[in-house]
């Protein structure tokens, strides 16, 4: 029987994100860090509050530890495309309440 010969484990699943989201000559972590600090500068033009800086650094470290940079960069690309097309968008999911978000 075919089913008895099929072996599958959820541990085998891996996401494969497109590397087009990464800036030339940079790693995903470097690109995410650059976009994050650019966004923070736009959000806080008078200067970044210390509590926000600490939170951003904490989140960037956690994202790097979990190797989730490409998840955030893919979200960044989707949001940038939508905004460029005049499409209203909202980020949802676990990144929505993050200081490091799209």
Automatic annotation (TrEMBL):
Q: What is its EC number?
A: 2.7.7.7
Looking at the record, the residues that make up the Bacterial DNA polymerase III alpha subunit NTPase domain are 30-101
Q: RNA-binding: is it a keyword of this entry? A: no
Q: Look up the domain of life of the source.
A: Bacteria
Q: Biological process (GO) annotations?
A: DNA repair; DNA replication
Q: Output the InterPro entries linked to this UniProt entry.
A: DNA_pol3_alpha_NTPase_dom, DnaE2/DnaE/PolC
Q: Does the keyword NAD apply?
A: no
Recite the UniProt keywords alphabetically. Answer: Cytoplasm, DNA damage, DNA repair, Nucleotidyltransferase, Transferase
Q: Which GO molecular function annotations are given, in alphabetical order?
A: 3'-5' exonuclease activity; DNA-directed DNA polymerase activity
| Protein name, UniProt field | Error-prone DNA polymerase 2
Organism whose genome encodes this protein: Rhodoferax antarcticus ANT.BR
Taxonomy of origin reads:
Bacteria, Pseudomonadati, Pseudomonadota, Betaproteobacteria, Burkholderiales
């Amino acid at each position: 029987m075919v089913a008895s010969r099929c072996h599958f484990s959820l541990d085998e699943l891996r996401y494969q994100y497109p590397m087009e989201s990464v800036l030339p000559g940079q790693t995903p972590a470097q690109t995410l860090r650059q976009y994050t600090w650019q966004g923070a500068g736009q959000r806080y033009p008078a200067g970044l509050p210390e509590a926000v800086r600490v939170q951003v650094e904490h989140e960037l470290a956690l994202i790097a530890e979990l190797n989730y940079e490409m998840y955030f960069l893919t979200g960044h690309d989707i949001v940038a495309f939508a905004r460029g097309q005049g499409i209203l968008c909202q980020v949802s999911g676990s990144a929505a309440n993050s200081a490091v978000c799209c």
